[in-house]
Design a protein that fits this description.
Elements: H1 2-6, H2 8-38, H3 44-58, E1 63-69, H4 75-83, E2 90-93, H5 95-102, E3 109-111, E4 131-139, E5 142-151, H6 164-191, H7 201-218, E6 222-229, H8 232-239, H9 241-258, E7 264-269, E8 272-278, H10 282-297, E9 301-303, E10 306-308, E11 312-318, H11 327-344
Parallel strand pairs: 1-2
Antiparallel strand pairs: 1-5, 3-4, 4-5, 6-8, 6-11, 7-8, 9-10
Helix pairs in contact: 2-3, 2-6, 3-6, 8-9
C-alpha cells in the first residue's frame, strides 16, 4: 500500500496526459468531420451556412460568423453570399480597421476580452460575446477577413493557449472557401447573362422546375412575370447599341433591387426578362407587375445628358390556373398575356 501511494502522483499525471490525448483526438475527429461535410458544398452560401453550423455544434460555441473587409476584391464573394441569402452570418468591416486590429495576421488571434473588438461582433450579440478567436480567411492568396468563434465564457480564448487546431481549422476553411468561390465562378459562367449579370434562361428553367416542385409539395401558389421592353428598337436606333446595352443593365438592376429576396429575375432573351415569384397568387403577381411598371417609370436611364424613360409590358401567369402546371405552359400563357398588354399600350 505505501508503495502504491508513492506512485499515486505519477498515476494522476498519466491520467491527465491520457485525457489530454483523448481531447486532442476528439478535436481532430471533429475537424475531419467538418472538412468532409463542407467540401462538397456546391456554392459559397451553402459552404458558409454549413461551416458555421458545424463549427458551432461540434465545438460547443455560442456564435460563429464571418467578417469580410470592404475591399473591392471581396465584392464578388459578398455578392454570391447576398444572392443566396447567407448575409445574416456576415459582417463587412473597413479594411484598414480590420488589418490594424488584427495586425494583418495570417495566424489565429485569441481574444480573451472582446472590449475594443465590438465592431467585429454582430450588434445582436455584442453584449453576450465575451471571448473570441479570429481565424484568418485567405481567399485567392489574400487576407479577405476572418472566421470568428464567439463564446459567452470570458477568457476561454486566452492568449497563451495552444492554437494548433485553430490553425488547422483556419487553413481548412480558407481552402474550402477558395474552392467554393472557384466552383461558383465556373458555374456563373454557364448560368449568367454576360451583359446584365442576371441569371440566364438556362438557369431560369432549373429554378422554375425547383419552385414548381416546391409549390406542389407545400401546396403554395407560384407565379411569374414575362417582361418585354417597350420601344427598345427605337432606343438602339436613336442612341446606339451601347445605350441599348446600358438600358438593359439599368432595367435588370432596378428589377432586382425592387423585388423581394425570395423572388428571382432572369434575362430570358434580347430585351425580355422573366421574374419568378414563389408563394404569390396570380392576383398578387399582377399587382407586383403594375407596381414595377410604375416604379421603373420613375427611374429613367441617364445617358449622354439625356433622361431616357424606361418602360415595359408585362404578362402574368400562375400555376393556380387550370392547365398551367409546368414551366412551358406557364411561360406560354404569360407570353400571350404580355402581347395582349403590348397591343393595349
Amino acid at each position: 500500500m505505501p508503495e502504491a501511494f508513492q506512485h499515486y502522483p505519477d498515476d494522476i499525471s498519466l491520467e491527465s496526459l491520457l485525457e489530454h490525448a483523448r481531447r486532442n483526438e476528439q478535436i481532430a475527429r471533429n475537424l475531419f468531420e467538418i472538412e468532409r461535410e463542407i467540401m462538397g458544398c456546391r456554392d459559397c452560401a451553402a459552404f458558409v451556412d454549413r461551416l458555421v453550423d458545424r463549427v458551432r455544434e461540434r465545438f460547443r460555441l455560442d456564435e460563429v460568423w464571418l467578417v469580410l473587409t470592404d475591399v473591392e476584391a471581396n465584392q464578388p464573394l459578398h455578392g454570391m453570399l447576398a444572392e443566396e441569402g447567407a448575409l445574416s452570418l456576415l459582417i463587412t468591416a473597413p479594411a484598414a480597421d480590420f488589418l490594424h486590429l488584427t495586425g494583418a495576421s495570417h495566424a489565429p488571434l485569441l481574444i480573451p476580452d472582446t472590449r475594443g473588438y465590438q465592431y467585429l461582433v454582430p450588434p445582436l450579440w455584442q453584449n453576450a460575446i465575451r471571448s473570441m478567436a479570429i481565424l484568418p480567411l485567405v481567399v485567392e492568396d489574400r487576407l479577405a477577413g476572418g472566421l470568428i468563434l464567439g463564446t459567452r465564457d470570458a477568457g476561454r480564448y486566452s492568449r497563451d493557449m495552444d492554437a494548433f487546431f485553430l490553425e488547422q481549422l483556419a487553413v481548412k476553411t480558407s481552402l474550402g472557401l477558395d474552392s467554393a468561390v472557384a466552383r461558383e465562378q465556373l458555374r456563373r459562367l454557364a448560368t449568367r447573362d454576360s451583359l446584365t449579370g442576371l441569371r440566364n434562361r438556362r438557369e431560369m428553367e432549373t429554378v422554375l422546375q425547383k419552385e414548381l416542385s416546391r409549390s406542389r409539395r407545400y401546396q403554395m401558389p407560384l407565379s411569374l412575370l414575362f417582361i418585354d421592353c417597350d420601344s427598345f428598337k427605337r432606343i438602339n436606333d436613336d442612341y446606339g447599341h451601347e445605350c441599348g446595352d446600358a438600358y438593359l443593365c439599368h432595367l435588370g438592376e432596378t428589377l432586382r433591387r425592387l423585388l423581394r429576396e425570395d423572388d428571382s429575375v432572369f434575362r430570358f432573351a434580347g430585351d425580355e426578362f422573366v421574374v419568378v415569384l414563389p408563394n404569390q397568387s396570380m392576383q398578387t403577381a399582377t399587382q407586383v407587375g403594375s407596381r414595377l411598371q410604375e416604379r421603373i417609370a420613375e427611374e429613367p436611364l441617364e445617358w449622354g445628358g439625356h433622361r431616357i424613360p424606361v418602360a415595359f409590358s408585362v404578362g402574368v401567369a400562375g400555376n393556380e390556373q387550370p392547365g398551367l402546371a409546368d414551366s412551358r405552359t406557364l411561360l406560354r400563357y404569360a407570353d400571350q398575356r404580355l402581347y395582349e398588354q403590348k397591343r393595349e399600350r
